[in-house]
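Pipeline run #58 for the internal structure catalog. This entry was flagged by the ingest filter as a single-chain record with no existing model, so it goes straight to prediction. Upstream metadata was stripped on purpose; only the residue string is passed forward. Reviewer on rotation: M.T. Logging verbosity set to normal.
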Amino acid sequence: MSARLLRLAAADPPRAHAAAVAALGDAAERTPREAITLRRVAALAAKELGLLEEGLAHLEEALRAAEGAGLAYERALVQMNLVGLLTAQGALPRALACADAAAKVLRGADADRLAANVACALARAGRPAQALEAVRQALPRLRRGDDPVTLAGLLINLGLAQALRGRPGDLQAGRRALAEAVTVAERAGLRAQAAMAKGNLAFVLSRCGDLPRALRLYAEAEADLTGERVVQCRLDQAETLIAAGLTGEARPLLAGALAEAAERGYRCDVADGLLLLAGAELADGDAERAGRTAERARAAFAAQERTGWMLLAEHLLLRARWAAGDRSAALWHAAVATADRLERGGWHEQAAGMRVIAARLALRLGRPARQLLEQAGRARRHGPAALRVAAWHAVALERSLSGDRRGALAAVRAGLRVADEYAEVFGAAELRVRAARVGEELAALGLELARSARQLLAAEERRRAVARRVTAVRPPADPQRAQALTRLRAAAAEHAAAVARGADPLPTARRLARLEAAVREASRRHSPSGAPPRPRLAGVPALTAALGERALVELVRVGDALHAVTVAAGRCRRWPIGPYGAVAHDAERLRFAVRRLARRADDSAAAGLREAAWRMAAWAPAGLRRALSGRELVIAPVGALHAVPWAALTRRPLTVVPSATAWLHARAAAAGRGSGRVVLAAGPSLPHAEAEIAALAELYPHATVLRGAAAAALPVRRALDGAELAHLAAHGEFREDNPLFSHLRLADGPLLAHDLEDIAAAPRLVVLSACDAGRAAGGEGMLGIVGALLALGTATVIASVAPVRDAGAHAFMTSLHRRLRAGMSPARAVAAVPRSPGTLGFQCFGAG
């Protein structure tokens, strides 16, 4: 019975725990050997259930019983079990001492079980090479034997140790070991161990760059995990979210996991969680807090004698000091020494990144940097994306130091190709935008190295291409995602009704938040297969041919300075504008003035707009104004300048684009043959919508018209599919916190940017008569309704970046469509329509 219960502790911890505790109640009928076995079962099951202190108490009692009865072999078995529980407690020295003592006694299969426990302890101590050595001899014997519990456990620890080494071959070996562990556990009916293997496999997949599949596996694994395994799974999920740039979601997940780990006595996990939290804080730009948290993690690792992990905490602490602006000689000395220790400890990615920081400090301090850069650059061919990007950064710096600017730019291009390949695995647009951060510093170096206008344009187009696909990867049909979107619409309508009647909105708001999280998770788990080919980046010859009499203006941020690159009349020129922060501040003032005038058209608001427009226009050099004089414009803004209401500055025709490459792609979409089908839809509770749609229906007598209850999300989305022209008049809302939840309010709730991904053939031209429908976020990702439509293949979108006044919208739209019907291009039609204060935000996006 005892042997069966030991196996049950791994397969079904709750049943094993209950049975062992019940059996221990009949102590009088048990021999010492049986009682010791029962306590071992109770301890192992208790650990899995999150009852670490109880488990340790059982093992301490079993240890005393074995010593009292002179049972040396049973004593060694108890010590073997203590290895796992003491490791979780953070008592690594005692855990390894128990392992050494047990190894002198245990033989055969028990020695192999000990090897599995020792591998886990060594991996968590930050000694993955020794962990691998511990299991090397045991693995072949276990594969030949009949002990799936131990084999699965050993494969899990083997896979984790290999993944921690971080090299490409080790990551792939870890992946194979964990996939085998899943198979072994599932065949033996060991659900808990199978889930644990899946969670660790997800961790390895995330380090290989396959975050969408990792997120799917985490969700699948967590349902069958308990106790410490849940905490570890959530810590691994947090690391994956941090790698994806989703630190805002990682931090609360970390906080919950840390609280549970501390409450249950998992001190080893507490230290791990602190290290992750410091990384999340640093990624969020909170360098000072990250430094304090890294110091706490280092102290925790030191107390547990986990020297390997202490190095990682020191690495993070130094990165935090660098991010906080420390450029001292002391930081340089510490960075050089820490980089060497990281390399010796097997942390190659962190060592390369630290050497890049040390080299940049050396260049600033006038100290030798070439050796550091050469050492860091050796990792550029193999390893995780972040390591290779950091290595190419080192190569670029080293070549620049040698005066080889052309070679340095080539290194930047090579590193950004790695960053682009890394971002390419993400199906969700928001993940790609955030994943692009892995190449941010390298892209910035490329911009600094560019001298000519053509070089600067090429460098900026490469930077933007990493963050944003020109063509979106459509998610596969996903019933769970579709159901989540439907439930979200219903919840949004319920929430709006609660607010309208003065009821407590908190319960419906919480439900909305849960449903939004479900939609995000479903979108993120999509891994693209057969992604569209990357378009060739726009060059000056192709742009010159396409522009004709137009002029391209691409705004570029180089360090703290803003520049403009123009392509007009076959010439590519570079223009310094001014400090980026000051220009962005004036752009925000202009946007505020337009919004204020839209809401209250009085003399004070009009005067405020005139002043803001004058300040904004004053940044353009006289030469730039002359070069653009009389030309239709294609404007590719940068950063905060995506929100500029350009109609407040000029009445000439213009279109706003994510990049020059995206504009060429949109023009190609505009040139294709259309269906001729027109869709007109009116959302609820918008005074001018019904009249606006009725007037447009007279201009387009064969249009599909949706209003009232018929203007619901699903019918509108179906009608948009393959349309030549679509006009939607509805309340709009831009979500700054998550732009893909920006929406138009329809009869049954919001039509989200997420919904648009299910359209098979994007409409050619879309007009959005709605407040703020043209706003975007996510830098050059242009996350929002307009960005989603352009990525899906819509050639041109006409939308407002400001509130829309009902009084002016009807007349503006009727006049706009008359011009479109007469054959005017969208950009010229928008420019030709007289503006009222409430329509200043409307502009063209895309081909124009």
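catalog note: The chain has a mean pLDDT of 82.
catalog note: DSSP finds 39 helices and 14 strands in the chain.
status: ready for reviewer M.T.
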